[in-house]
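During the reporting period the student researcher (J.K.) took over the structure-prediction task from the postdoctoral fellow and processed the backlog of single-chain submissions. One of the processed entries is reproduced below for the supervisory committee.
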Amino acid sequence: MTTAFDPIDLSGTQLANRIAMAPMTRSRAFGPGLTPTESVVTYYAQRASAGFIISEGIQPSAVGQGYPDTPGLHSAEQVAAWRRVTDAVHDKGGVIFAQIMHSGRIGHPVLLPDGLHPVGPSAVPAQGQVYTHDGPKDFPTPKALTSDEVRATIGDFAAAARNAVDAGFDGVEIHGANGYLVHQFLAPGVNRRTDEWGGSAENRIRFAAEVVKAVAAEIGAHRTGLRISPANPYNDMAGSEPDAEETYTRLVAALEPLGLGYLHIMEAAPEPREMTLALRKQFSGTFVLNPATEGFTGPEALTLIEDGVADVLAFGALFLANPDLPARLRAGGPYNTPDPATFFGGGDEGFVDYPALTAV
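J.K. obtained the following structure tokens:
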């Protein structure tokens, strides 16, 4: 029987176990030009015993930033700063992938330089607010990307992926979940375009597929992963994907021939496990799962590996409170309890403020 503590070959990258650290927003890029600081180096190195680490969301361009003090991978300064992080993880024997995240309509102009404005597939604002250094602000109506700008944004993802590899990351995860730009293109409630990038499910998956193909062409499909969250209501996406099953079935079918390193599913609470199992059956590569749970994902989820539901399990909040989580899971505990007071938002993705680290 396969267990979470068995090694696995991730398309040529050897993982010591099947316990991944989920991507978790930190908002600690306090270095020059939104670069990670020494505290970020320490944070990731502490958790290097994960089978592999998926970093916090890293914007591929200045306009891709959706939260204060989040890091980028679009300048030489940022590449050099991330190299200190990846070197520290590798010195501990770890593996780390960079999550490339464009927030799209989630954000605010006060977070962006040079008069930039949040963008999206269509001029459809999200209901809700984003935290800024000036306090909470309503999400604005995004600027709808032109077709040329869509192509340029795809190029930004590919360039950021090259920068990630130059910075020493072992691979890249494209963030196609949780209501950010890639997810926005997939959802007809948000993507109201009538050109090649919108309308039918075939057109709406095109942006996600082209981003993945561009990144794979730049750094190799074996170093490329994609995270999706079908029917996830986060960031005002509730009800925006009435045809989620058709959309994601088409998307995975389009990506299957590429030979990606992995597919990462973040289950939403309303999402039935049946869709996860269907996508698991459809995708022949490594299948990473951040399961829907009551509260944070705990040790009880390990049976999902044993039952063959997933190849790798991603843990969020529990990894924050327990930097040596794989050892604690193997020993059956004890566990430090994550502090919900440090959470920005819902779900086990772990939108968590940095003071959580002071408790470990």
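The committee noted the following: The two ends are 33 Å apart (CA to CA).
J.K. will present the remaining backlog at the next meeting.
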